[in-house]
User: Fold this.
Amino acid sequence: MKNILVTGGAGYVGSHVIVSLLEQGYGAVSVDNFYNSSPKVYQRLRELTGKDFIDIEADVCDEAKMKEVMAKHDLWAVIHCAGYKAVPESVSKPLEYYQNNLGTTFSLCNAMRQTGVTRFVFSSSATVYGEPQFLPYTEEHPTGNCTNPYGMSKVMNERILTDMAAANPDWGVVLLRYFNPIGAHPSGRIGDAPGGIPNNIMPYILKVANGLLPVLPIAGDDYDTPDGTGLRDYLHISDLAEGHVAALRYLEDFTGSEAVNLGTGQSVSVRELIRGIEKTSGKTLPTEIKSRRPGDIAEARADVSKAKRLFGWETKKTLEEMCADAWRWASQNPQGYEGE
Ligand code: WQD
Assistant:
């Protein structure tokens, strides 16, 4: 059995990746310090999959601990999802973001070198592309023109890992550039559970639909888009998770490094997303128009031909399924994992 280390395995992306790994016959070892997640997800994962896995509470920046985990569990690859990801917070706390988001990668790479692990899948982001010079974004679009430390930490990690692959001919690295993952496992048992006021649109919409927040602020309706609101390439979190397993299959015969977009290739507006949740929940969501957020772009949309060509991967789930699954999770777990 191929054992995979999933950093941030208690998080939104990491927990869905673990479901896909277990369902497809991999072993999983989750490392998480619960900075932005809850250990309560692990029991739900075991219930959902009917399978067991290893979970370890630790800081991924702890290199000695990462070396111990890799040596003990005979790991085939690392999927690195752990990281700080709040764009506005990164602007006010740049040092914490660089220290954590780069420190975790340094720790993992050193531990891998010392234990002979040579495969790395990195949770990157379309945010590395910055203001689009052309759309859809292909993987050849320039990167690095980011307006915040969160995005820059992704750019820097991509460079570190690309250089590690160039210096170590037996290493295989895949940089997965996520567009906008939304939704939840169809069971409604795991999902996105940000505390407080969410930064991202879908968790905010769901808190309004649940009556936990009074109104949804629409961050600008004066973009040059069909309905004036921002357009994004939203993909179902379960499709995203499958993209990670597809990347592992690719790494069976690949050394070197590749950046790959994970998206649908279509973009959806804020108002379309709101309508999707209104339709599935039967509720009318109060909204208010606010000013644009600094650094926001009018549209992001992925060219997804490379994922199809290299991995044979493409998204399967529709916007309706994304909204229905998101609402099922949020309506059944209005307080996320803390409601139990
Ligand atoms: C989507 C759309 C907003 C909030 C960021 C990161 C990316 C990824 C996902 C981190 C935009 C609008 C939002 C709100 C709104 N990783 N919006 N009101 O900014 O595309 O991407 O999050 O999690 O790396 O860059 O996603 O969900 O914040 O915004 O109108 O309260 O919703 O203007 O058009 P974004 P988002």
Notes: The pocket of WQD is lined by residues 85, 87, 125, 127, 180, 199-201, 204, 217-219, 230, 232, 270, 293, 296 (CB under 6 Å). Residues 218 and 231 are 12 Å apart (CA to CA). The first strand starts at residue 3 and ends at 7.
